[in-house]
Amino acid sequence: MAITLYAARGGGSAIVEALLTLTGQEYRVEYFSWEDLPNEELLAVNPLGEIPALRLDNGDLLTETAAITLWLGDRFPASKLVPPADDPVRVQFLRRLVWLVAAVYPTFTYGDHPERFVPDKTDAVQLRETTDLRRQALWRQLEKETGGPWICGGRRTALDIFIAVMSCWRPRRQWFAAECPQLFAIAQRVDQLDTLKKVWSRNRLPQT
């Protein structure tokens, strides 16, 4: 059974699609339209109705981008996407991986569809605005902590793929170029990886 990625073009699943490609693992992608999410088919795979979700070659289901990233690192250590347990960079990698999904991701969860969380239109507009500002502050924080050509210094890891994709979302690449030039430079380096050209094309990335 081939690995199947349940995805939506340009979303968080693009991160996993890129990581799968870098491992050399064969996989198939089932794209959902954003307008159709969540739907019954996806809910049967992931009760949260969110992408990405991964059906492994043994039939098991795996969700959550960080969990998928760590699984790929364990299964394909030669890809060097995830530093091994005895690597000094491991602690930094884990902290930033969880930070991205626990701190930055939720600003989209609440900001993209504020009407799901607050019934009043005025409150919904305010929630969108405050989550956007919170996200910008978080990116500036990471910019200050970034000192090498990649997020973890001198080597490329899965985190750099996160940056390349997530910098295409609000406030988008033009903002990063002006406000977080180091993160912008990382994203551009990832953009140029020949191995990922087809992934970016399928996902209509990068976007300004």
From TrEMBL:
InterPro entries: Glutathione-S-Trfase_C_sf, Glutathione_S-Trfase_N, Thioredoxin-like_sf. This is Glutathione S-transferase family protein. Residues 1-80 form the GST N-terminal domain. Coiled coil: none annotated. It comes from Microbulbifer taiwanensis.
